[in-house]
């Protein structure tokens, strides 16, 4: 929650900060945010495996130290070089944290309650988002947009203290026969050694060599292209359509607030449905959200779009982590959950490159604004991804066999 408080407190206004304060062009802003999305998604493939060796606690401490340095640099050096360096550092810091929390859920959730565990995880993520955006709004109005970076520095210092003093990796309380699915640091009650964990490259090939898994990741990249537009495109869209005084933080609160309040409830309802069809419905609702934003270019349309996408996320996201975690090799949960972030990078990079060019062409600083061409493009991409995911579910209806 603290890490997301810091991240979204900056990310909600980052594209505005980069174009107004750092004075990047629309195209360079989109490129930077796209590369940021790629790095923060693909780096965890390596750092997730490293976290399995370091231990989750050390990985969290490393992450928060990096975050403190990165947010401080973003505040202290509002220049082109400073922005590129600080945002690269943010990606590296996040790469040490992102696999750890879902990896912890996967490793220690009670048998049969993994979906509920991922619902609690996702609710806490969105609670942090709500708090971060509220704090950013207050500081932006009382001090300045640049000063909102300090909120994130403070949150990460608190997070570092919690990781150092209060986070302890639990020992999985599982019957002996289930130990192959849960890595423990000590022998089991019968005195036998824990099962041997495969080497990194053998584990990596065991996951990425699965063509079905790779095809699934490629398809769902379209969903992550959509979700990033609430941060790559929306902040610039609302400022250029409605002015700098438009309530952009309040509108972005609709999504995480709805998820924080309703995620566990929706998770209980949707857990009876198969994972792939449920995710496909979520992607389709995400596409409808994009279409609504473009078809109703008002503040009410934007609010409706955020709420509709919240429903999409509540259906999609916990099932995604549950589905991907079923491919996890015992003792390599961190690496597998790192691979789960690859579609974030593919979708984020493609979305960033596309966003900068669509904004420059259809939402110029001066002249005619054509928002439907921007959001309609995203809606079309989402609709195609949903159809492909439905087809994927028909071809591969069975749940993957746990390794």
Give the topology.
Layout: H1 2-21, H2 26-54, H3 56-76, H4 80-95, H5 100-108, H6 114-142, H7 148-165, H8 200-208, H9 211-232, H10 234-242, H11 248-270, H12 275-295, H13 299-325, H14 333-339, H15 342-362, H16 371-395
Helix pairs in contact: 1-6, 1-7, 2-3, 2-4, 2-14, 2-15, 3-4, 3-7, 5-6, 5-14, 6-7, 6-11, 6-13, 9-12, 9-15, 9-16, 11-13, 12-13, 12-16
What's the quick description here?
With 403 residues, this protein is mainly alpha-helical. Helices cover 76% and strands 0% of the residues.
Architecture overview:
The protein has 403 residues and is mainly α. The protein has one domain: MFS general substrate transporter like domains (Growth Hormone, Chain: A, Up-down Bundle), CATH 1.20.1250.20. Helix content is 76%, strand content 0%. It has helices at residues 2-21, 26-54, 56-76, 80-95, 100-108, 114-142, 148-165, 200-208, 211-232, 234-242, 248-270, 275-295, 299-325, 333-339, 342-362, 371-395. Helix 3 (56-76) packs antiparallel against helix 4, helix 9 runs parallel beside helix 12 (275-295) and helix 11 (248-270) packs across helix 13 (299-325). The longest helix is centred in the first third of the chain and has 29 residues, at 26-54. It is globular and about 55 Å long. Mean pLDDT is 83; it is low at 173-187.
